[in-house]
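Example 9 (inverse folding). The structure is encoded as follows.
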């Protein structure tokens, strides 16, 4: 009986262990973002589809935010008049010319940020351009 309990306990640990290992590889949810981590191309996605890409720069703009390039193809998905981005305590925000955050993204992992919009549609920023993942 003792060996049966030990065997069952070991099986439980082995069944759980792979989940713990997978989670440890990408556990940045809620961790503050550094500007160096964010610089580069990010895909804007919703409903499992890539809608456009944006480029986050590392240099600051006149408004104190970091540089942001948003193509016309993002119109309708992201707020109009985005000019920069900034770090937040648990992700990043895309800002307008006055420095006000127009859309906030929460950090879910090293390469995924999610915004729950007031319209009920989730918008994600995923590191890299289409096909990079």
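The amino acid assigned to each position is listed next.
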């Amino acid at each position: 009986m003792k060996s049966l309990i030990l065997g069952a306990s070991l099986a439980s640990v082995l069944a759980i262990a792979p989940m713990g290992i997978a989670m440890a590889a990408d556990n940045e949810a809620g961790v503050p973002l550094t500007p160096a981590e964010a610089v580069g191309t990010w895909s804007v996605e919703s409903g499992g589809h890539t809608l456009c890409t944006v480029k986050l720069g590392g240099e600051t703009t006149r408004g104190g935010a970091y540089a942001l390039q948003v193509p016309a193809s993002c119109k309708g998905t992201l707020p109009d008049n985005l000019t920069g981005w900034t770090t937040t305590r648990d992700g990043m925000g895309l800002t307008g010319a006055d420095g006000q955050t127009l859309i906030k993204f929460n950090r879910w992992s090293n390469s995924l940020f999610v915004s729950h919009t007031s319209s009920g549609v989730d918008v994600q920023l995923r590191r890299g351009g289409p096909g990079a993942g």
